[in-house]
Model the fold of this input.
Amino acid sequence: MTPAPPRAPRPATTIVVAGYGALTSGILPHLAALPETRVVLTSRHLARTPDTAIPLITPAEITGHHPDLILGCFENDASSRDFWTHEHVTGAITERRAACIELSTISPERAMQWHDEIAALGGTPWECPVTGSRPGARSGTLSAFVYAAAPHDIADRALAAFTRNRYQFTSPGNPARFKLIFNAWGAALLHASGAFARCLPPHLGADYPVAAQIVTSDGWMAALAAQKLPRIEERAYGEPDFAVRHMIKCATPATCWARCRCSSPR
Done:
């Protein structure tokens, strides 16, 4: 009788990535490259996996993969809540006392609620909105704003795979608060940059190249102008850093300002 071939050993770490978009598409290869790590993906929008080395599963299959870490990135509060409260996700967290990383830009209220939900299941929540857009995700150089409820080696190793800078906050919900203000600030700067940059060609005509050289190389605005002016010239606004819907997650501007506790925008 021929003995059955031995089963492949289970990898030391299993990571479930939930949500597939501009950030997670760049993050996945960095996670998959970690030694002794198996990465699986779940997404509402994909019919097949974007990488044959990374299985695509449904939320109902998550428990069977026994994840040590679940990493989620979603478009808004509702999508985040739907995933993290799914019965098979909560079951997986409870079974393995899994670490959970929430990369989404969500409201502070939802972030606080999420911490309580994960802790009640025995998991370790890491609130972790990031910045750097698609280029930072692809290069593994995102910046992360982190509140970690407790240390966790697997979460730390995963985060190190795709971030260059990590900024530690001391209170839950503060990364979400900071990210919303940071995004609103960025949206205002981008709007102003586009409005004024488009004034230069009609007013300066043939001298526009000189003006472009000045604004991209001299003065305190140069770093922003050097990065954004070519795309403003071409009206190439397809990247998430130009899309207000990716920046402002509040229901109304008034709500955003109230959360920021800034002075009135008027």
